[in-house]
Amino acid sequence: MEYCHLKDGQPLAGSRLLKNQTAIMTNSSATSTSERKKKIQDVMQKANHNDNPCIREFGFSISDTFECVDARVLDPPRLEYCDGKVDPKNGTWWAKKFKVGAEIRQWTIIGFGVQHDRIGTKVNELARQVVNFGQSTGMIFSKPDEPFEYISSDKRSLISCLEKKKNYDLVVVIIPNNKDSYYFVKQEAEQRVGLLTQCVKVDTLFKLDDQTTIRNILLKINCKMNGINHVLANLDLIDKESCMVMGADVTHPSPQARTIPSVIAVTASHNLKATNYNIHVGLQEPRTTLSEIIQSLETITRDKLKIFHNQTGQKPKRIYFFRDGVSDGEFERVKEIEINAIKRACASYDCNPHLTFIVVQKRHNTRFFPIDTRDGTGKYENVPVGTYVDTVITDPTIPNFYLMSHQSIKGVGRPTKYCVLHDENNLSNDDVEKLAYYLCHVYTRCNRAVSYPAPTYFAHLAADRAKGYLYKKNINLDNLNQGLVKIDSKFASKNPMFFS
What we know:
By secondary structure, the protein is of the alpha/beta class. The protein folds into two domains: 103-224, Rossmann fold (3-Layer(aba) Sandwich), CATH 3.40.50.2300; 232-494, Ribonuclease H-like superfamily/Ribonuclease H (Nucleotidyltransferase, domain 5, 2-Layer Sandwich), CATH 3.30.420.10. Helices cover 33% and strands 18% of the residues. It has 14 helices and 18 strands. It has helices at residues 19-29, 33-47, 53-57, 116-136, 155-164, 179-193, 202-205, 211-224, 236-239, 297-312, 331-348, 429-439, 454-469, 489-494, and strands at 72-73, 79-81, 84-86, 103-104, 107-112, 140-141, 149-151, 170-175, 197-201, 231-232, 243-251, 262-269, 277-284, 318-324, 354-361, 387-389, 400-404, 416-423. The strands form four sheets. Strands 1-16-17-18-15-14-11-12-13 form a nine-stranded mixed β-sheet, sandwiched between helices. The protein has a four-stranded parallel β-sheet with strand order 7-5-8-9, with helices on both faces. α5 crosses α6 (179-193) and α10 (297-312) crosses α11 (331-348). It is globular and about 80 Å long.
């Protein structure tokens, strides 16, 4: 066998790691803060930047020590469930009865492209646990319609099966461990039939002995069925007067994907506790001067105002808008185009809410290390959950700060950076930091604080769903067909959190 030896340092265009390779890379690079800190110091010493003649010529030097900054730790919010309140500890908490449990009258399970003889017993166990654990969380589950149906991986069989169950409240779909099946189910159920589904991978059926597995499934189902898992017990910035919270993101294809458009996703709350959200997804031409800007934001915002008004009976007096996917160089254009679009939408809907527009940034290289590792938390000795920094390393020209809102599962955690581009609510630094931190605790898929506010997390989920709608479809970038990501309107209106 002959081998081709590649010279070091050459990038391989279009290459992606396999799933197992990604897992190996992630595990091997997950180190504690003390280990990571030492590695950085070693690299700095080897680089020896201060001996660089160019650096000396410009008359500056690079310190070989870490910058020490003052930091504070926010208290976590108290969360309210049906049967009491709970205080998160280190970014996690144990679920009690859902604040509002959903009722599922008619539902069933189908197997799509899976072997009945291998998983039949496990599927029956899943049905039993869904009913029993659902009742313990405050949900009302009728017994599922049986016998459960198993169909081939043929798309026509899937469509026929879903059409027959169009009037069901919910269909749980057991799928193989591949993305094709998942995308096909969501395309047909949400775009063609208008049916709520909960996909469960075959591998998950073999983890039902762990109660966390079934609880995580129920977290998703309850929200999809218009239940409320939990609410913030008290946040004056939202509770004091009607407030709509929004999140937005624009995701782009990789440079190698030349036939894929950019996807925009906007989410907005439609209840007074800012726990339930509806979405808008759309397509934009990629790699243009305006590809980072949400070009239809005025129309989208007007639609979100209408939904909020219809659901609450009130027009919002405040809007908190969390915008992801914006670099520092785009700030001025976002202020000029997007903020003005939001204000025009409000004026056209005959309301004048005070707007606070905050950019959420994760793509940066800032990391926090506790001075004393004894002050670190968890396996990787990260700074405590709720740690924030708003001096020294921040931009002096705009209000901004770094917040570590979550407990890192692997390695050194990355804080999220927040930049306030526009504020008509006259929020103090403490107000903005508290608002962002508290909203990291209302994500519906887990009983953990997440790394950035729920509305932006939901925008990511919505964008991912839209990309799934595009899977294996023909796309003409010269004439983008928004119908490619169109969702059945009655379905989206009935179950606005179907994407969660």
